[in-house]
């Protein structure tokens, strides 16, 4: 097994951290059969049905974005069997926290490359004192995030060599929603449709700042990606 770590920097700050794993033979660790003993049909059928139901559980907010592009919340162990059915080549992870060890083992076992773009989530509250009153204002993501980080993430998503690709953050709502919204702008969707899709996933947690970010995001610098490595057209 070979583990390669690449770091790309721009202006001295880490832009993207990618981890590529050369796949080794994947052992079916979770299948434990006794071939020496005759099976009990009724017991095996019941256990098989239960196992089938438990094996293919999609992550929170999972959906297909386009051919070879998927989105979701943070996958955990219960979702690994489902993710295997997608035949993923890469994952675009939009949080700054280190990837969990169990998830990294899953990537190693399946030869999946990780692209990490450390976009900070919102801070729960900011205390602003006006007179004798305390006003708590929720800080929302992307306010101070440079556009070039989203541009770089979109380049990864648009490159067919990384497909099938899964985009995810923690819950698949805000950071993932903004990246997908910018992809839709690249695809020439109208803003009404972009916002409708964003709100379907964010629901009551939809944020005006996210929608403002998507509205102002400039996709013109991505138009040069109309080449063989980008089947998705703007």
Number of helices: 7
Strand order of the largest sheet: 1-2-6-5-9-4-3
By secondary-structure content and strand pairing, the structural class works out as alpha/beta
Mean pLDDT: 77
Q: How many E-type strands?
A: 9
Q: Indicate the overall shape.
A: globular
**Rg estimate, integer Å:** 21 Å
List the helices and strands in order. Answer: EEHEEHEHEEEHEHHH
Q: Tell me the β content.
A: 15-25%
Which percent range fits the helix content? 25-40%
What gap, in angstroms, lies between the N and C termini?
Answer: 38 Å
List unreliable stretches of 5+ residues.
1-5, 22-42, 124-142
Main beta sheet: 7 strands, mixed
Overview of this structure, please?
Helix 3 (101-110) links the parallel strand 5 and strand 6 (113-116). The chain has helices at 41-55, 80-84, 101-110, 147-158, 175-186, 191-202, 208-216, and strands at 2-10, 13-22, 63-66, 69-72, 90-93, 113-116, 126-130, 133-137, 165-168. The protein is globular, with a radius of gyration of 21 Å. Helix 5 runs antiparallel to helix 6 (191-202) and helix 5 packs parallel to helix 7 (208-216). It has 234 residues and is of the alpha/beta class. The two termini are 38 Å apart.
Highlighted features:
234 residues, alpha/beta, 7-stranded mixed beta sheet, 7 helices, disordered N terminus
Quick gist of this model?
The chain is of the alpha/beta class and 234 residues long. The protein is built from 7 helices and 9 strands. It is an enzyme of class 3 (hydrolase).
Question: What is the element layout, followed by pairings?
Answer:
Blueprint: E1 2-10, E2 13-22, H1 41-55, E3 63-66, E4 69-72, H2 80-84, E5 90-93, H3 101-110, E6 113-116, E7 126-130, E8 133-137, H4 147-158, E9 165-168, H5 175-186, H6 191-202, H7 208-216
Parallel strand pairs: 4-9, 5-6, 5-9
Antiparallel strand pairs: 1-2, 2-6, 3-4, 7-8
Helix pairs in contact: 5-6, 5-7
